[in-house]
Amino acid sequence: MTFQNFTLDTDADGIAMVTWDMPGRSMNVIDLAVMAELSAIVEAVASDAAIKGAVITSGKDTFCGGADLAMLETLSRTFAELVKSAGEEAANARLFEQSRKFSLLARRIETCGKPWVAALNGTAMGGGFELALACHHRIAADNDKTRLGLPEIKVGLFPGGGGTQRIARMLPPADALQFLLKGDQLRVNRAKAMKLVDTVVPAGELVGSAKDWIRSGGKAKAPWDVDGFKLPGGSVYSKAGMMVFPPANALYRRETSDNYPAARAVLQVVYEGLQLPMDQALRVESRYFAKILRSPEAAAMIRSLFVSLQELNKGARRPAAVPAKKIKKIGILGAGFMGAGIAYVSAAAGIDVVLIDRDRETADKGKAHSHKLMTDQVNKGRTTAADREALLARIAPTPDFAALNGCDLIIEAVFEDRKIKEDVIAKAQQVIGGDTTFGSNTSTLPITSLAKTFKDQPRFIGIHFFSPVERMMLVEVILGKETGDAALAAALDYVRAIRKTPIVVNDSRGFYTSRVVGTYIREGHLMLTEGVPAAMIENVGRMAGMPVGPLSLNDEVAVDLAWKILKATEADLGPQAIDRRQTALLREMVEKRGRYGRKNGKGFYDYPQSGPKRLWPGLADLQATRLDPDLIDIGELKHRLLAIQALESARCIEEGVVTDVREADVGSILGFGFAPFTGGTISYIDGMGTKTFVDLCRGLAERCGERFKPSPLLLDMAKKGETFYRRFPPGKRKAVA
């Protein structure tokens, strides 16, 4: 029997060896062809009396990356088409049957009468791990790089191949819910401690150990299919059960504000499934999975956080004509918090780093940041002391600009002051080579104007990191008017090397991310001046889906920085470009009260040396009017906080700052946490429909001010019934007109 994605061999002991190795792919994924072939293999194993059992492993370095989400996208589109052609009932039935194929396959493995062993030679995620859970025994190779998990919740889905029901029968319900709702990736030893993996062995013993388990009489029944099986945490309607599910529901609502249908479905599926026999429980899981699959939240999150994210990570915006370049050595100008963070992620990627500051002591402090981060990892058992020393050896701190000679890329990360930046640019270009790319990590200063101080402007580009660098996954690459393709390619090759996601935008004040998130912070300021209680502003921000409220976010980026930007904007663009209410608030906070944000321990919040931060009580004294919270429309506050960001994103597209809708969406989620369940700022508009969004903005403009007035592009799209993804198809950067 010949297969495209698998090989099937049976040894002299009657043990079938199933090796999964999809051609032309770096990682195995579950698609329709894989399911069809694996189903045929399962039946062949089950029907052949000479076969005692089967071992499934991978011919690649990893086991499986999960289901092909493009396949699920196709299912969703097919559903929408069937609704129109055959009606919703027929479409629902078709989606249910199609979406549960993998669940039925996994259950067939579990009940086929022959023992199956998953020999996990590497990472198994999503459906790949669900497949392993359906096997009767799981053995993992001892590999520190291996990760095991069910991360579907992060793209608006939940495990639909039986994962919720098997996990809930292997772990106590509280642990099961935490695992399913967090989407954590486990190392093999942690998975073994949780009893999700039975054995961990050296890589060379993996297949042999799997076969030995079958030879020694491994059972072909899952524990839950054996009479007398008892749930590890007791039944749902028990004292233990009642200590889990009601609090879990409350925690879910507190953490998500009920914005994530998939998370709610996990609670429902586990709660209902644990009261049923396995086959019925799996059917319940499939019902909910089909429902979530057709939700707008899942569609938006799959598109932005999987499809678009992968395309950008693979170089969707990289100039194809420029040969790939391996970045071996970089220079970083400035060893402060940002420069030190850039040095760390670069060295972690195997890149040699020259870290420059005004003197050796300051440069050494920048390197010490990497030592601290690595030591924390060593103490948590996530890396070794040898790895720490190897990383530190790649960072060379120095005040000598001559050390930049031979660098492939320079990143300037000094204080956000034009004169300081121009000074280090001048010093660096005296020693760097003629093919070295120069990048500025600025969040506000226009790249085109900074490039004028550089002798070869086509090699000058913006490379904007986010803080803290080691945790934030986005890098905003900014094209000046003279930036060339070679510089863009080098910047994108570097971003890929440090395993972060790039977006490419054109030069403008605040670029894209700073410009849009600034509207969120400003809206919080204006709400405060209107008399909305500060606590309500912050809570509504989180309820809308943002990671933190606008006042808290301003504290993190610095209140005095917001004040400097506001003054600079007025100086450059005139008084009509700013809101006087915001000016008065920030002047009071910074110049009169000395409240600069977290960095000096006092901003919109107080930051005591011990205990959590708390809103500064003096904020109420800054409010000339104090509104009755019971009379405030919370729904409108949420709309204001999200719509103002989406509106600014639309303006960025209209002005040509952002030229790819994927980058607007991905950048908004990864850069400043815009409500992930919407799919990003542009998907937020498309999700409700452009006409509805325009009507929303018109209403807000009447009640709250002209800043909500919809732009000409939005008015035109609303009139024509267009969406951004249809008018500006990803990858086809059309002109706005």
Structure description:
This protein folds into three domains: 6-294, Alpha-Beta Complex (2-enoyl-CoA Hydratase, Chain A, domain 1); 329-508, 3-Layer(aba) Sandwich (Rossmann fold); 522-536 and 548-630, N-(1-d-carboxylethyl)-l-norvaline Dehydrogenase, domain 2, CATH 1.10.1040.50. It is 50% helix and 11% strand. Helix 21 (513-530) packs antiparallel against helix 26 and helix 26 packs across helix 29. The radius of gyration is 28 Å and the shape is globular.
Task: Using the alpha-carbon principal axes, give the shape.
Answer: globular
| E-strand count | 19
CATH-derived topology of the largest domain: 2-enoyl-CoA Hydratase, Chain A, domain 1
Assembly type: single chain
State which percent range the strand residues make up.
5-15%
On the 0-100 scale, what is the average pLDDT? 95
Report strand order across the widest sheet: 12-11-10-13-14-15-16-17
| Total helical segments | 31
Instruction: Calculate the terminal CA-CA distance, rounded to whole Å.
Output: 57 Å
Count of domains: 3
Largest sheet: 8 strands, mixed
Rg (CA only): 28 Å
For the record, the CATH class of the largest domain is Alpha Beta
Give helix % range: 40-55%
Q: Please state the structural category.
A: alpha/beta
CATH superfamily of the largest domain: 2-enoyl-CoA Hydratase, Chain A, domain 1
Q: Indicate the low-confidence ranges by residue numbers.
A: 733-737
Overall CATH architecture of the largest domain: Alpha-Beta Complex
